[in-house]
Amino acid sequence: MSHIHIPDGVLPLWLIAAGWVVTLALLFLAARRLSEPEAGRKLPLLGVMAAVMLVGMSTEFVPIAYHVNLTVLAGIIVGPAMGFVVAFIVDLILALFGHGGITVVGLNTLIIGAECALGYYFFRALYRLLHPRIKSVAVPAGVAVVITLFISTMLLIGIVALSNVDPSKARDTGSLDVQTFSFKNPFEEGVISNRVINPEKEAMGNFYLHDSGINLGRFATAVLLLGSIGWILEAMITAVIVQFIYRVRRELIVQ
Amino acid sequence: MDIAALDRWAVQGRSRIHRASPLGKLAATMLFIACVTVARDVLTLITLYIALAALVVVARLPLRRTLMIAAYPAIFALLFAFSQWDGQWATPVVIVLKAMDAGLAMVLLISSTPYPQLFAVIGRVLPRVVADALLLTYRSFFLLLEEMDHLITALRLRGGLLRGRPMRTIRNLSVALGVLLVRSFDLGQRLYEALTLRGYSGRFPSGGSWKRIAPTYDGLPVMVGAILLALAVASQAGRLPLAISLAAPLLAGVGFVATVFGRHGVREPARPRHPATQMPPAPGVWQSDHHVEDDQEPFDHVHPEAMGKEIIAHVSCVRHTYSDSTIVSLCGLDFIVTAAQRVVILGPNGSGKSTLLYHLLGLLRPDEGLVRLFGHDPAQHWSAVREKVGVVLQNVDEQILAPTVYDDIAFSPRNYAHSEEEVKTLVEKVMGDLNITHLRDKVPHYLSGGEKRKVALAGALVLEPELLIMDEPFEGLDPKSRDELIALLNRLHENKHISFMLTTHEVDIVPQLADSVYMLVQGGEIVEHGTPRRLFSRADVLARSNIEPPVLARLFETLRDCGLDVGGSPLTVDEAAERLVAWASRAVPQPTD
After folding, report:
1. Per-residue pLDDT tens for B370-380?
2. Among candidates B142, B141, B43, which has minimal Cα distance to B101?
3. Which residues from chain B sit within 8 angstroms of residue A244, using beta carbons?
């Protein structure tokens, strides 16, 4: 639910950079797992899965103007490692189309990649737990989506919280000041400071941002409120799709 | 999000911005994004937005629609704006403006740069598998998007998208996505087969064109980006009024010059939606020299080696079991292709035509029976024969893999480690042979059906194979494109002595391009083999294979039934005309002087 919600220029540079570093490291690890002899066979699978996610995002579910992300579905089908590569490809293409920030592709990939991985493990666990009693795979799929998206939304809120640890005080975001246990901007003295909040109310008056951080409580309330509607819809849609695939190509869902 | 529209604008545009190099545009975009990141006041961000909008105008993109698409991220930025509401309007406005500016910068980049060029640059910094998957994603996306459109149309026509029943609609759309997903895995499998057949060796090969820069056109976006970044930095350093007083006239001047140049620049005509209509007229295929000689009768039921001919393909009583337990058993007569022979395989749906070809291509391994291609078992030793065989699959979309026509034709030679010089020579030669040089830098998914078929054929012929294998090559082609392809194949056969074998349903074209015909029946048995003349004169054999006789054969049969002595069934229009003229001269009394 979170890939589109972080625009460019809102989060601090250190967080964006950290997101890219971790994502690229995981991406290289995932790519290494797709060893050379297997790459030829897995490559088209990666391509079409990412393409299906993009098609899902391009399909408007009338009349509610909602589109699906299919991240959990991708995780269920291609697994966590390939799911991470798929998440990166989808995020990069979306960002290139202005659909979400390009600088935050790293962070978004971590969130979506986490959705793929968590979705995979939750679905597997629930399927094993419920399977003899409940024959439908829609139930474990739907439940896995709700749990996964709840966790990924908390992850998003966590990332936003990291960007501004104490909304009432922490205007300067950057390196950790161990004395006050707050983050301090490493570029504070330099020319480039990417704080959203400008502490000095300067001559331009209202044209500048004011001394206020992201109100985490308000942000979390809004995200969870809007997100919960999305989780339910995504869970319903994923459940129907998983059930359908289970009926026609069972081996794709349960190896 | 209208990815298809942005992609179309990128490919079709001819403005100054479109002509700038991908490297230049990426550099400019990074400057814009840096500006977004640095800026924290409304004025700077509005200036950036106006400058980007001006570049959209210079790029001759539809302004309103572009701004609407680029405004999409602003909706989600509202969430952050809401979270930072402090009673002052500046904070949320800055957040929304940042999202809009960044969105517009990216949309400007993607709608003025065809994806192959963009991905070629981006792919340099990504792991190989990821870079290749990125290209395949984009390629598959357009195939699947079209498929999804068809599914939604079918849903609409069948009452699956009903107003007032949102839950039913959501369920039906979900099922459509499920269908798409299942089909996409089949597509993935076919893409894998195409990659294998075309020698994929763990990397999409590419030339060095991504390094190219265009100083004449790169200057404008890079300059605008640099000025705006300077403005943002200056504004943050508290020197905004000075920065604005310098930047505003500079930006205005650059914009004016660019607009004037842009307006008077050479505007190339828009690419027609179906360029096949502009192709040169098809050669007179009915006057082709490739008539089958009346008295020619190939080795029916006789092993051709006994006739001193070199066998290049041989399939004998092959049986294959598919994963859904369907069994295809290609028994009956042996299937044999000799050097420089043109072979057509006829048969109804489900008769195993594709199974036969896939065994020869090593994509299927027989449960039992013999498959030999140039003396090798293709399932085990494909690498030994792959450069001798060119392949055109039924759906050519699934075998055109590279981002541009040139790169796609160069795909196999690059995979087989030919030098870039050799690749260039080979590709240009085959493009010249097939008369598709004008398509060289086109993006494949915007080509017409006939053009795609030619590109796929060029990719199959680039290494000058001895055998060309084609699965339903005429499917979906209009008559003109079909006639062009027939003429082309015959020309290749005549000039280069290439053997080819193909499957088709179109019985009327068989006499024009077959030395030998194999007939299959439902279930896979090869029941007949012979020249088109011999087989098409046997109504019982055609009926057994569920094949309608050619229209000329039916016409002459009807004439004979009417009591006209027009002779046997002709194979070509010329032959039919000759017989009718002969009959008329006999039947109608000649005037006496």
Report:
1. 999 999 998 88
2. B43
3. 174-175, 178-179, 182
Domain of B567 in residue numbering reads as 552-587
CATH architecture assignment, domain A13-153+235-253? Orthogonal Bundle (1.10)
Alpha-carbon torsion angle B444, B359, B180, A109, nearest 10: -70
Beta partners for residue B336, in sequence order: B314
Residue B473 burial (10 A CB sphere; 0-12, 13-18, 19+): buried
Q: Has residue A86 got a pLDDT over 80?
A: yes
User: What does each C-alpha distance from A80 to A171, A193, B547 come to in angstroms?
Assistant: 36, 36, 50
CB B515 within 8 A of CB B304: no
CB pairs under 8 A between A and B: 290
Which long-range CB contacts under 8 A does A176-181 form with residues at least 24 apart?
A: none
* Partner residue facing B132 (CB), from A43, A51, A215: A43
Helices (H), A131-254: 138-163, 216-248, 250-253
What is the model's pLDDT at position B196?
A: 72
Does B106 sit within 8 Å of A97, measured CB to CB? yes
Phi, psi of B124 (to 5 degrees): -65, -25
**Closest Cα in chain B to A2:** B76
Contact B110 A97 (CB under 8 A): yes
Candidates B44, B412, B77; CA nearest to B234 is B44
Using a CB-CB distance cutoff of 8 angstroms, which residues of chain B are in contact with residue A159? Answer: none
Quickly state the pLDDT bin for B410 (edges 50, 70, 90): confident
Handedness of CA B24, B27, B32, B35 (dihedral sign): negative
Residue A15 confidence (pLDDT)? 85
Kindly state whether B169 is in contact with chain A, defined as any CB-CB distance less than 8 angstroms: yes
DSSP class per residue in B134-195:
HHHHHHHHHHHHHHHHHHHHHHHHTT-S-TT-HHHHHHHHHHHHHHHHHHHHHHHHHHHHHH
Domain ranges of chain A: 13-153+235-253
Q: Judge: B94–A97 Cβ closer than 8 Å, yes or no.
A: no
B222 and B120 in a single domain? The answer is yes
CA distance B360 to B337: 11
Closest residue, chain B, to A97 (C-alpha):
B107
Q: What is the pTM of this model?
A: 0.68
Spell A172-187 as b/e; 16+ CB within 10 A means b.
bbbeeeeeeebbebeb
- The residue with tokens 């003295």 is A189
Nearest-angstrom CA–CA distance, B36 and A148: 32
Query: Using an 8 Å Cβ cutoff, are B174 and A237 in contact?
Result: yes
d(CA B393, CA A52): 23
- HSE-CB at A97 with a 13 A cutoff on CA atoms is 24
- Report chain A residues whose CB lies below 8 A from the CB of B130: 27, 31, 85, 88-89
Measure the CA angle with vertex B92, ends B88 and B98; round to 5°. Answer: 140
SS3 B8: helix
Per the CB < 8 A criterion, the answer to whether B99 and A8 are in contact is: yes
Helix (H) or strand (E) holding A99: none
**Using an 8 Å Cβ cutoff, are A90 and A50 in contact?**
yes
The answer, yes or no, to whether residue A51 has pLDDT greater than 60, is yes
Same domain, B512 and B577: no
How far is residue B76's CA from residue A164's CA, in Å, rounded to a whole number? 19
A4 touches B: beta carbon within 8 Å: yes
* Range from B1-10, B296-305, B494-503 carrying the lowest mean pLDDT: B296-305
B338 & B376 share domain: yes
- The count of domains in chain B is 3
DSSP B378-433: TTT-HHHHGGGEEEE-SSGGGT--SSSHHHHHTHHHHHTT--HHHHHHHHHHHHHH
- If asked whether residues B398 and B332 sit together in one domain, one would say yes
Q: Does B166 touch chain A (CB under 8 A)?
A: yes
- Whether the ipTM is more than 0.90: the answer is no
